[in-house]
Design a protein that fits this description.
The chain is of the alpha+beta class and 149 residues long. 34% of the residues lie in helices and 38% in strands. The chain has 4 helices and 7 strands. The longest helix is centred in the first third of the chain and has 19 residues.
Length: 149
């Protein structure tokens, strides 16, 4: 299995929608909402213009995605990292890639649902994140995580 990464553009909206729907369907069912599930073509195209978004390719096939925003001074916000369930297990390598393409990083942060133990364990144990504050995002309690250099 060979992983590669490619910057996503508007023309990638369709595969990005498929990846997000596959990755976030459980969250949508569990929480009755998920901001990355069920996006329209136009919403996804706009997202590729607002955020630095990458496709994760396994042997050339799109299987995941992540986006990030530089908030200045080496601070990055990692948004909606997702992988099609059948390809779970590539997240650590993908996170390392993010750190490579953001060589000035001093802090990387993200949020995840506070009750998703598997996410918390992955980010803390495999990627070195620390727990931050909890807050409500609509009807879902989320927790912030961060990693500092």
């Amino acid at each position: 299995m060979k992983l590669s990464y490619r910057r996503a553009g508007k023309e990638d909206a369709e595969p990005l929608i498929g990846i997000c729907n596959a990755a976030f369907s459980d969250g949508f069912i569990r929480y009755e909402m998920c901001p990355r599930y069920g996006n329209t073509q136009g919403e996804m195209e706009a997202s590729t213009e607002r955020h630095c978004k990458y496709l994760i390719l396994c042997d050339g096939i799109p299987v995941g995605a992540f986006s990030f925003d530089c908030e200045g001074e080496g601070h990055y916000y990692l948004g909606c990292p997702c992988v099609i369930p059948a390809y779970q297990g590539i997240g650590t390598q993908t996170f390392r890639y993010l750190l490579l393409i953001c060589p000035d990083w001093k802090r990387v942060s993200l949020v995840t649902p506070a009750d998703k133990e598997e996410n918390l364990r992955f980010y803390r144990e495999r990627c070195g994140f620390c727990l931050g504050d909890k807050k409500m995002d609509g009807t879902v309690e989320v927790v912030g995580l961060y990693r500092e250099r």
